[in-house]
Structure prediction request, 276 residues.
Amino acid sequence: MTKRIDFKPGKNHPGSWHNDRMPQRLKNIPLLKPFYPVVALVLGSFRDLLPIIVVIGFFQLAVLKQPLPDLYGLLTGVALVTLGLTLFVQGLEMGLFPIGESMARGFARKGNLFWLLAFGFALGFGTTIAEPALIAVAGEAAKVAATGGMITDTPVERSSYAWGLRLTVGLSVGAAIALGVLRIIRGWPIQHLILAGYLGVILMTFFAPPEIIGIAYDSGGVTTSTITVPLVTALGVGLASSIRGRNPVTDGFGLIAFASLTPMIFVMAYGMIRTL
Prediction:
């Protein structure tokens, strides 16, 4: 497949440590001046976490009427989560988003449809296999399958089942991203593909073993997590920004929807094959 892609010149948008949410009263403190960007990012992350803190505090103190256990440890944990969220978000803006967009633009500039689809498949497969959430769910699913008698309760069999589940989900997400890339290039309406996909999910539900249905539905959610979402989103936006006639807002998004949809079909098929 050597079809050329109509490349549209443009610019990348690398991340930075700049953040405009720094309160003015803190900007007036001379000692904080060298740390304005970092402090602004930490405050922004804390502001994002504040609703969760308020909800937990309200139900613990006002509804359960119990003191917060290990207040020192709790405050330390909140501080670590805030710092971790700050570094994670900034890492996305400085690293994953720019590299995803630049690679999408590079493949669009190359103009070879085959390599662009291959890159989309490989990106979806690789990021999904590495998803910590999927690894955890696959391990739990293997334990439940062993307990329920679907597989032999041995470490080797559980490991094989978990790996097979991860591989199935990885292949499904790879196929979904390749399909989403093709949709962006061709300009296909996303709603038609999503509707057809969910009809397929409903039909597969009638034939899949009951033990695998819940796992299949959850697999669609755990695939779109910390590793997959940033890179796939950057790929879609970068690709739509690079092709003439495509709008990053209307065409660049939607890849995550495909990545959430196809694992349900593939995992139910995996369960049907395992029960043969």
About this structure: The chain has ten helices and no strands. Residues 42 and 86 are 6 Å apart (CA to CA). The two ends are 37 Å apart (CA to CA).
